[in-house]
Amino acid sequence: MDEYAQWYWHFADQWSLLLGLRRDDVHFHEQDFYITATNPDDSGHVTYSATTPVVGVQFRPADNVRLNASYGKGFETPSYNELGYRSDGQPGLAFNLLPQHSRNLEVGAKWQIIPALEFDAAVFRSDTRNELTVDTNENGRSTYENVGSARRQGLEFSLTGQLGNDFQLSAGFTHLLASFRSPFFTCTTTPCAVPTTPVAAGTPIPGVPDNYGSLRLEHGTDLGWRQGVTLQGVGSVTVNDTDTQRAAGYALVDIDTSYTFALGVTTRLQLSASIDNLADRRYIGTVIVNDSNGRYFEPGPDRTYMLGARLAF
């Protein structure tokens, strides 16, 4: 059950204030119906709750410029998937896991360069306690643990809008540094009653790329032909808590085209075709964090073709 309240105050011509408060109560309950002499009752329950505030201020020095700053607290409970298996190999859910609590700060700006083109920029930091991370991955079973504090900080930019002559642009870039701030011990095998492998403070959080960027350029109108090209780049990413192996970064190019027919006043039929991974690059699309057999890497799709049709009315 969640309750929240927000208050927005335009207290001066160029200034506005946002205040918010949220209350979360999350309850997990598990009933064990398979109970025998050698398989005891593993029923259990746990309740997570927190009250999180947020405050934000916005300043408008000109009609086409917005400056903003915000601070808030966050609350994230384990999911049922994360509760599913215990690290010690015993039956029952991992009700010992704690929720994550975070303090979040962001400072940003929006600039409407021309009426149809906007540039956004922001710097941010998020400090988390009771960081919930993958403990082990073995034979399709993932276990999790709380490891103290962590920090995510970085900056991001975006540029979106119309360039004229029926060209549309959407570009973005994110630089993110995510690291553990507390030393802890992790597991390398399952079951793991007592973690024994040390992880130093400052180690990167696995599964999080340092850099990500994308660029999409389209040409066309709502009716008739439309063509597009998309470029995306992802930086290298560590795959385990000890940062001993990494997945290489990659860049991909996708192209697409479509034609839209007017079948009536409001009815539209769009036929489309696209090719993803045009250069047929071999790359690591996803990683299995802390896989106990060292099989961290999962390949991304090869060159992929798609035909589509959409009818809107």
Question: Can you put this structure into words, describing what you see?
Answer:
This protein has one helix spanning 80-83; strands at 2-12, 15-30, 44-62, 65-76, 100-114, 117-129, 132-138, 141-146, 149-164, 167-180, 184-186, 197-199, 211-220, 224-234, 237-238, 246-247, 250-262, 268-276, 284-287, 297-299, 304-312. The protein is an all-beta fold and 313 residues long. The protein has 2 domains: 1-205, Maltoporin, Chain A; 209-313, no CATH class. It is globular, with a radius of gyration of 24 Å. The model has no long low-confidence stretch (mean pLDDT 93).
Q: Would you report the number of β strands? A: 21
For the record, give the distance between the C-alpha atoms at the N and C termini, rounded to a whole number.
Answer: 38 Å
What is the CATH fold-level name of the largest domain?
Maltoporin, Chain A
Proper CATH architecture of the largest domain: Beta Barrel
Instruction: Describe the sheet with the most strands.
Output: 13 strands, antiparallel
In DSSP terms (H or I, runs of 4 or more residues), the helix count works out at 1
Trace the largest sheet across and list its strands: 1-2-3-4-5-6-9-10-13-14-17-18-21
Strand content: over 45%
- Uncertain runs: none
The helicity comes to under 10%
